[in-house]
Amino acid sequence: MQIVFLNRLERLEGKEEFRGQVFIGEHQGTWTAGWRSGESGPAAEDEVWYEGVSWEELLAAFRHGAAVKMKEGFRPLIDGMLETPVWEREPSQQLLVQCYAELQQENPELTAALRQWRRARASEEKRSAYLVATNRELHMLAVYVPRTPAELAQIPGFGKLKTERYGSDLIGLLQGVPREHAFPLDWVAQAVDADQFAQWMFRVKEEKYGRALSSVRDKRSLLSAIREGKTLAEMESELQCERRKLVERIEKLDEEGYDVLPVVDLELSAVPTEEWTQASEAMVQLGDRYLKPLLRKVYGEGEAAQQEVERQYEKLRMMRIRFRRERQTAI
After folding, report:
1. Do 69 and 22 contact (CB within 8 A), yes or no?
2. 3-state class of 272 per DSSP?
3. Of 57, 91, 235, 257, which alpha carbon lies 20 to 30 A from 160's?
């Protein structure tokens, strides 16, 4: 294997020093990324993070692995693997507020009440719960317990629109809850030391690159299933992903330039010609950006069961992919 990138990392524990190396290598078109503990030599042990032909997955695995090692206290001889070095960056107030909150113990009862509120609002608005509030935002609410709109606005993630939409609900929920921290939150800059902040930032990066790696691997699995000619039902079972999200991911792959027509044509094979013609004409007339006007145009505005509506949206998404491909071919 030919090494194309190598960086040494060190960690001090008291007077004892631990060393290791991150590496990227290539052999006959196959990429390898990983960690080698100790100094190089016959006794060195490799921890392989990735081995394959995908450069995208290689980088995602390498960054995630490097973030894990840096979270464990290792520091690189040459930095730049994970963007700007944490210790060279001036922490923003928002990051300090997030960091301090996550160093505090969770209030289980208050967090449970906030999660219940989030579920109710997400159900009411028919949107994903994380779009209402992320787990990190709920944790900050439980730690700082804002009681006014001005205080709520100091919580990262709660800008003007979010405060206007959910402020009265949250302030009412938190109003009678005792709190240990004062507002404004400018005191957190003195409450978080540099080492605590660095460790927290590396954990955040580990989570970020972990999600990126998971996304790359999910994409690879989905593309493989498409190439193998699997149906949506088979993919749903095999990839453990709900049907609606699968279709959305297939649309995204199409936008990125991947060939998804095998599954599109497979799923639309049972769609009557008349239905396809109506959908195609509707997209020419109304454009293909928004699905709701197309749904009304093709399937009418009568009452329909939720499951049937979801099936109609699914077909429209698939027909939109085919429509766009046909128009590109015609140009």
Report:
1. yes
2. coil
3. 91
